[in-house]
Write a structure and sequence with these properties.
A hairpin with a 4-residue loop joins β30 (about 390-395) and β31. This protein folds into 3 domains: about 10-80, no CATH class; about 125-265; about 275-410, no CATH class. It is mainly beta. It has helices spanning about 65-70, 75, 130-135, 280-290, 300-305, 310-315, 330-335; strands at about 10-20, 20-25, 25-30, 40-50, 60-65, 95, 105, 125-130, 145-150, 155, 165-170, 170-175, 180, 185, 195, 200-205, 205-215, 220, 225-230, 230-235, 235-240, 250, 255, 260, 265, 275, 295-300, 340-350, 350-360, 390-395, 400-410. It is about 10% helix and about 35% strand. It has a 6-stranded parallel β-sheet. The protein contains 7 helices and 31 strands. The termini are far apart.
Length: about 400
């Protein structure tokens, strides 16, 4: 297998350019970058057919005439990030010499240094990111350095083909600023960050209105990061993600988490949600599944559930000792505003009781695990565990509005 750049590809090539004659068996000719891609991915790569001797194409790649390549027409249309344009990104990866010449990588050009960032990249004096151009320049700097956002960054009218920061092992403090309108149309490992290494720390960062579309073969896509081996803390993310096959890992925060995520919620989860389950069959099935004795189902009204949060808070925050050894009281109190609530009721021995099934809505990977209800609303209970007391079932006496039973993840 003879080709311009890759003979056989089991990894991945993207935004690459090759030119020159290729011979095989005494016959000169040109092929694309990789005729056999194996299990690898080949995206946005261009071969110069004219300079290669006018040969044909393989199943992977695009052949272009010299004039199109030299003037950057085909590469720009393919989404390559050129100097002095921002529609395809702000990293300024490629440059075409004025008047005539093939695309050149700026990393090899002394007269095209990366954009200068303020700061020294240390913990005491981090590089300061103030604009989309600063953000794009990070990939040219030390991946292990310290960075911080000092302003909101709007990425409108920019469409990236790769993660703006493909690999990162340093520290980025977002200072609660927001990166908005991140748009990516590419292959795999897409997000604001591609991969966060084990020593990486990303904290206090907000991302909203992201739109990421990966290849059908994509394995990992996430709004903040496609893959995390480091630590993500106090971050929020919102956006739309699509792409990937049967083995894909998609996350509204992180696609594939192998590190640590702390106090991070997806911003597109507008919860907590609170509903009264009005389907008697759903309530009956829930009671039987939970092992709760009842004579008949009773559907409470809005007025019946008013003030129950305050009752539960007082109950858990009291100094009195109770026998529920499996209840993580501190976890419930700390996360009380973050639970979905599903209310229903039953009658036992002429007394009315209210069930409150509370479900944590932020999963350990930062995904949006909001309880989804069938149409019409209130026809099904949804149980989702989240570590700690991810699912809390509380039984109130409807008359006295006191707690008469509580379970954490099915144990009480």
């Amino acid at each position: 297998m003879i080709h311009y750049l890759v003979g056989e590809d089991w990894g991945g090539t993207a935004q690459s350019y090759a030119v020159g004659p290729v011979s095989c068996g005494g016959e000169a000719g040109g092929w694309s970058l990789a005729t056999y891609a194996g299990s690898g991915t080949v995206t946005s790569r261009i071969s110069d057919v004219k300079k290669a001797g006018g040969a044909g194409l393989s199943d992977h790649g695009r052949g272009s005439m010299t004039v199109q390549v030299q003037h950057g027409q085909i590469p720009f249309a393919a989404g390559w990030d050129f100097v002095d344009e921002r529609a395809n990104g702000t990293a300024d990866m490629w440059w075409v010499p004025e008047g005539y010449g093939c695309p050149l990588l700026t990393v090899f050009l002394d007269d095209h240094p990366p954009r200068e960032l303020e700061g020294a990249g240390t913990a005491d004096d981090p590089y300061r990111i103030t604009s989309a151009e600063d953000l794009g320049a990070i990939c040219h700097y030390d991946a292990m350095a310290h960075y911080e956002l000092v302003a909101d960054i709007d990425l409108s009218r920019i469409t990236w083909t790769t993660a703006p920061i493909p690999i990162f092992g340093g520290v980025l403090n977002g200072n609660d600023f927001t990166v908005s309108n991140l748009t990516i149309r590419g292959g795999d490992y897409l997000g604001l960050f591609g991969t966060l290494w084990m020593d990486a720390i990303v904290e206090n960062l907000r991302i909203k209105d992201a739109n990421i579309v990966g290849a059908e073969s994509a394995i990992s896509l996430g709004v903040l990061a496609a893959e995390n081996w480091g630590r993500v803390a106090h971050c929020r993310a919102a956006g739309e993600i699509s792409g990937g096959g049967d083995e894909q890992r998609l996350g509204s925060l992180v696609g594939w988490n192998l590190g640590t995520i702390e106090d991070c919620d997806p911003m597109d989860c507008a919860g907590p949600y609170s509903v009264i389950v009005r389907d008697p069959n759903a309530t009956r099935d829930f009671l039987r599944f939970a092992g709760i004795q009842f004579n008949q189902v009773w559907i409470p009204e809005e007025t019946d559930i008013e003030g129950l949060d305050s009752v539960l808070w007082t109950y858990l925050d009291s100094d009195s000792t109770y026998a529920h050894t499996f209840i993580d009281r501190d976890h419930i109190l700390a996360n009380l505003p973050r639970y979905d609530r599903e209310y229903s009721g039953f009658i036992l021995d002429d007394s009315k009781y209210i069930i409150c099934s509370m479900i944590a809505w932020s999963g350990i990977q930062g995904g949006c695990y909001v309880a989804k209800y069938e149409e019409p609303p209130g026809t099904i209970f949804t149980l989702i565990a989240d570590g700690g007391c991810g699912v809390v079932t509380v039984i109130f006496d409807a008359e006295s509005k006191t707690v008469v039973g509580i379970e954490c993840n099915g144990e009480g």
